[in-house]
Amino acid sequence: MARSCGVAGLLAIAQLVPVAVCEVLSVRTSPPRDLEASLANWNLGLDDAGAPPLAGQLRVSGCGSPAEDLNGALALVDSASCEAGALGAVFVHYDEGLAGLALGDAEVPSIRAVVIERSPGLELLSLLASQAVEAELKLGKLISEDAYEEQFIFRVDEFHATRKENFLWHQYPSLLPSSGRETLSARLMPRLAVPEGWFSRPMGFVPLFNPSLLSLQDGTFLVALRMSNGQGCPSVRAARESSMDTRICRNELVLAHLGEDLAVRSHVLVEMPMLRCRFTAESQTAGRQFLDEVYGPMDARIAWGDEEIWVLFYAERNVCEVEVERGMHAAPLHIDWATCNGWYLYATDAAFLPSQCSWLGSGDPISLESCQRSCEAQKACTAFTFREGVACELRQCSERPKVWPLVGWQSWHRGGDQCLERAFVKAEELLAFPAAHGVEKNWNLILGEKLRLFMEYFIEPHIVLTASLWRNDAGIHLARLEQSFVSRWPYEVLHGLTNVRGGFCCLRLSDELLQIRTSQRRIGGDDDEENLELPPGPLLLGAGHLQRIRSPFDQAPGDLSRFRRQAKSRTYHQFFYLLRASEPFDVVAVSSEWCITINGHFSQHWAEVLAPGEEACESIQFVAGLALRGSEVVVSYGINDCESDLLPLPLSEVVAMLKPVRSAVNVSLDELEMI
């Protein structure tokens, strides 16, 4: 091995402060590794000049090495004076970690250069004595337009670095397999027109997240999604176009109609009364130091009431010149339908049944547009089944044709069906609930009656509020809001855990659907180990989550270096629960925690990074909707405040995850320090 020039040489690289950019140096060892690499602005001029990327065989550079030894290679060095002949330099940091890098006052390197942490750098030095190593700087794999940063991915070794006692029921969370389909947000994104003025240039992907799902009588679905310029998506952060850059947070509520196969049929933006909040130096509120204005509804839930659909959402408004109201709002959601004009995607990964659609011949399969034109050229053609470059089958279909599964195919229909034409909230029907604690978010509608709403305010302790309404020709008005019921889960579920948060409630399950009249043993530490049964149905299914702040421990198994880089970032893990469907709406069953394996558009890079057999979830998943589809529960969830997806689960699997509990009812909040 060539002689090293000494670690102190790193201090004399350049009189520059590293920009806050985190890149990945991908090193092809066994197993492959991705190393965090710190960049100063050394490479910006080379980027502009079109220089080749930092990639190639890694070799050790010593002060006495002949220049030809480094031709066409990357130099692993710890001094700027040893770069001659190399395409790029990989410097080993003089100390552990990358924080507080002091770069001295020497000249900027004339070749591409990055810095890696000392520990992996020394490991690479030892490896190079016996094998050749390839390395590549993957530009924009951690902070980029096409991949989540490391902190937004939760790998399974993080579970095992934590004691079981830190999870519900003393059980490690389950990893539920994702659908594997293209995400709901990715399917909807090409159809959306981003409101004018949101961005200075077109965005490839706009945050579209926290979807709330509702089933309709004909077997189709409505889903409400939050569209925002928040910093959730890497594409928005990298473009410096997020609300943190513009200081204006913009939001719209998107309502989409989904078929029985969950394909998008139509969508509209929900028309809302003006929801705007402006912050000034005189504003009497906390927590908005980085925003000047906030517009629109956020994190909506849609739910059935008595013969009407309600929408609940969070919004911020100025109530006078200096006072700000940041809280929950609710209103009936009005929807107008119309006969679909033109083509719409009827089903994905499916083909029309021949018994429902007569075959008219084959069209041009070169593109979707060419297949549509082929159908339009035949007067009788009302539908087609398409696979790009393979087939375009023209058909005449009945009004509501059935389909059969066929992976990779799309079924398109023309007119005749119902599409969303308009969705709106009336200003005179919009209820604004008081924000008693400064900010009120994530309330759920348990039961909606004509003159009364039962709402889940808090999940543990389980607090139910009742809103009494009165209606007249002038609209809907809030007559009274009061706390009605308080109950607490048994200790053996939580054993001291806090930060239990609500997600979505409630999906009504009949006794027939539950089909679990046999007793299940309660897991806990009681000496008598009491056997419990669920009360008679119907019951109400909900989903909540626990938020945790990552805090690595030195004795934890796994990648400690990665754990430390992720420190102080958030993770959400979900759980199911059941409520009694009548007063006092107490919790009667709770599952262990779970998350859904990665499926997001921006998670695909990590599927390549994970070792064979390794599993991971996105760090922040937020269940905002549950709906029935036959014998399945469809879970709608947000991903990292950026994307939306759906996961159908067998109802039997969901029920099997739930453990009956007996909540304490009529609890006094005066005894609870957390409220």
From TrEMBL:
Residues 1-22 form the signal peptide. Keywords: Signal. It comes from Durusdinium trenchii. It comes from the Eukaryota. This is Apple domain-containing protein. The keyword Signal applies.
